[in-house]
């Protein structure tokens, strides 16, 4: 083999999709893609997960950098993309062993350059869907047609073998030394593999911890915003209640003062009348007439005054009602605008999150963790229970009956005394296998239910 055909370390780029690695190319082809010489219409208007790998002549991965690449609607990559892949591959930390010793690994949770961390992603290390194993297998398949180094062992020619002299035949047993060296080598390999496995698990734990922290931060932010809104509403209700209580107390005080004044006047007039009755019938009649006239005048004056106050109150109340109606109309209009802006903003935010690769996952008993597509978000918000029931291929009523049984697996049969049996029974884990009146009853009531059905 000439020097020009000698295998060298090769730089390659591999594109990931939901099915695994969907496209492979050499780094010069990737540079041509970045320069706009070629396009990739199959990735139009998407954010794609990509891996930059170094492959040695034995088709083994030596370094990997996991990064994102955005494509526009024409399938052209982002013109502002400028991640130094070679620099990250040279400066990154150690990763798992993919056949040629620990690789150099750069990803979101292990990035030597902090300001590029947001543009990287963490590979999945879960059994059965390990992205590093996909890279290793893709390199072994050699669809890029790389030159492979022949690493077969060189056989020593018999004529090159030399026999030791007789005086050295009784030297220490070389087989024992070879066995000890092999044992030491195997022990060292086991230690290295254990250390690599520990590093791999630490990397996975770091990735999961970061995901959990991001989810927790989002939940805390949503909770804080909702709490702030509720506090504002509560404060407004407390203020309105306090104003109404002050107004009621003021009116009660005014009525009490006026009632006291009328009662005092009546008592004074009654005392004068009794005094005048002692001086004779005529004077009593005159005084009674005068008393009635004065009392009627005072009552008329008080009535006029109260009517004026009532008229003033009516005007104020009409003005307040009109103002309340205007404010209510304004509130309704602002609510409509807020809902419109909120719906537009939420849809745009959800679309942007979906483009960034964010998936919406919820957990429902019986259905497990459900990944909700963007187009199903509204339907899920309207009725999460019906959505989960549909995923379990049962009706919503059956799913609700099963959920009550799943959360508290005891007999729901009614006793003659009016209570429930409540005897613990075996839990039915699948909603589709749950039968109301049978799965949620103990053996005794289940048998009686069957007898009633037969009869």
UniProtKB/TrEMBL annotation:
Alphabetical UniProt keywords: Coiled coil
Protein name: Chromosome partitioning protein ParA
Coiled coil regions, renumbered to chain: 180-279
């Amino acid at each position: 083999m000439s020097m020009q055909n000698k295998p060298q370390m090769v730089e390659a780029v591999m594109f990931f999709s939901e099915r695994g690695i969907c496209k492979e190319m050499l780094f010069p082809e990737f540079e041509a893609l970045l320069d706009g010489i070629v396009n990739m219409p199959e990735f139009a208007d998407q954010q794609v997960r990509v891996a930059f790998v170094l492959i040695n002549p034995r088709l083994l991965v030596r370094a990997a950098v996991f990064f994102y690449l955005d494509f526009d609607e024409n399938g052209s990559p982002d013109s502002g993309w400028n991640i130094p892949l070679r620099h990250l591959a040279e400066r990154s930390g150690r990763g798992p062993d993919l056949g040629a010793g620990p690789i150099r690994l750069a990803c979101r949770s292990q990035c030597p350059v902090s300001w590029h961390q947001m543009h990287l992603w963490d590979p999945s290390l879960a059994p059965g869907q390990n992205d590093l194993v996909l890279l290793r297998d893709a390199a072994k398949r050699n669809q890029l047609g790389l030159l492979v180094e022949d690493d077969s062992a060189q056989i020593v020619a018999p004529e090159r073998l030399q026999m030791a002299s007789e005086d050295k035949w009784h030297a220490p047993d070389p087989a024992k030394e070879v066995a000890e060296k092999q044992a030491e080598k195997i022990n060292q390999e086991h230690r290295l593999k254990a250390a690599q496995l520990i590093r791999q698990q630490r990397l996975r734990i770091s990735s999961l911890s970061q995901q959990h922290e991001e989810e927790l931060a989002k939940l805390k932010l949503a909770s804080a915003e909702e709490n702030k809104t509720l506090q504002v509403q509560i404060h407004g209700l407390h203020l309105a209640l306090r104003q109404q209580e002050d107004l009621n107390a003021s009116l009660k005080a005014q009525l009490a003062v006026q009632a006291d004044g009328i009662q005092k006047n009546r008592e004074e007039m009654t005392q004068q009348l009794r005094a005048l009755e002692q001086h004779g019938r005529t004077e009593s009649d005159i005084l009674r007439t005068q008393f009635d006239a004065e009392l009627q005048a005072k009552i008329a004056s008080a009535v006029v005054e109260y009517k004026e106050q009532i008229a003033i109150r009516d005007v104020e109340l009409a003005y307040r009602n009109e103002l309340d109606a205007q404010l209510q109309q304004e509130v309704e209009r602002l609510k409509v605008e807020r809902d419109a802006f909120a719906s537009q903003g939420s849809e745009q935010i959800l679309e942007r999150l979906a483009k960034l690769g964010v998936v919406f996952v919820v957990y429902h008993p019986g259905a497990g963790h459900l990944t909700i597509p963007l187009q199903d978000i509204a339907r899920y918000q309207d009725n999460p229970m019906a959505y989960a029931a549909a995923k379990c291929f049962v009706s919503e009523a059956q799913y609700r009956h099963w959920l009550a049984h799943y959360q508290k697996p005891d007999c729901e049969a009614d006793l003659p005394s009016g209570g429930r049996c409540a005897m613990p029974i075996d839990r039915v884990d699948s909603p589709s296998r749950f039968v109301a009146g049978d799965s949620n009853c103990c053996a005794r009531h289940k048998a009686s239910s069957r007898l009633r059905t037969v009869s």
